[in-house]
dTDP-4-dehydrorhamnose reductase
Amino acid sequence: MFKVAVIGASGLLGRALVGELAQQAGWQVVATTFSRPAPNAATLDIRDARAVEQFIEREAPDALVIAAAERRPDVCEHDPALARALNVDAVRTLAAAANRRGAWTLSISTDYVFDGAHPPYRHDAAPSPLNAYGRSKLEGERALLDTTDLGCVLRLPLLYGPIVGWAESAVTSLVPAIAASAATSAADGKSAVMDAWAIRYPTFTPDIAVVIRQMLERHARNEAIRGIVQWSGDEPMTKYEIAIRLAEALQVDARLTPQHTPTDATPRPHNCHLASDRLEALGIGRRTPFDTAIRQVLAAFPWRGDTAA
Ligand SMILES: NC(=O)c1ccc[n+]([C@@H]2O[C@H](COP(=O)([O-])OP(=O)(O)OC[C@H]3O[C@@H](n4cnc5c(N)ncnc54)[C@H](OP(=O)(O)O)[C@@H]3O)[C@@H](O)[C@H]2O)c1
């Protein structure tokens, strides 16, 4: 039996990953959540080092995937202590505990470790984060790689996938404003303003789950991937372009206005396109076209005019 611990199984990525891994014959998945208890998952606060050590000792996994994090840039900016506790210190604690048991640790990081000025970025390009979130994730990468020789960092860009609320992903969080713009008449003049400056590569969480499962398979055959790898969708788009495609999928007549200069309070990079060549060279990867994937997401979580979700 090959045993994988998924830390942060209640999150956008964690749920997709547990769904993928649970289908593998001969694999056992142990999952943890924090504020959202789930059936078949342990509750674990990864800031509690003793609890983390006890969890790893008790479960003795062969591999650990850290999908828990504080990933909201604005929260990281305003609460750097929380960002550090989750994105740096907890990664070190988890990796040290896994290392003591000889377990492989995969930690998830972000394209925001780069400044977005010189894409595409290979895995060995020099990082230069612009905001507190990117800085904390970069420190977390270094904490992992300093703590264990049996560790790997997987950098990812903007995620979307099956959701339990519109705000869960920066892709689906556009839906309420798109729908509201379609509900107003042209005479009201209320179109939704969408960022048309930053170039993003939305990446589907079930595709990433396949990538991680393929990485885990290599570890299971004693060919563990170490160091830094990256995975990205290959369709560049601004939020404005994402909104147009969402409106098409929703079949609504949205009224959208492109915003060609950045307006975010938190500095964000322009284009952090991640080169996925290291994983591709290993035959790892899957990319579902955006228009196909987003229709799956919307079919499973249909818009009912409820902006509260
Ligand atoms: N979302 C994106 O667009 C994006 C882009 C690039 C990289 N990433 C990276 O991908 C990874 C997964 O992101 P995501 O979008 O799936 O995040 P998410 O939906 O915000 O989920 C965060 C997870 O962390 C858990 N968590 C929060 N505080 C915790 C604590 N104190 N102890 C234990 N667990 C705690 C949450 O548990 P509860 O919900 O149960 O509290 C949840 O399972 C992160 O490393 C993130 O930095 C995300």
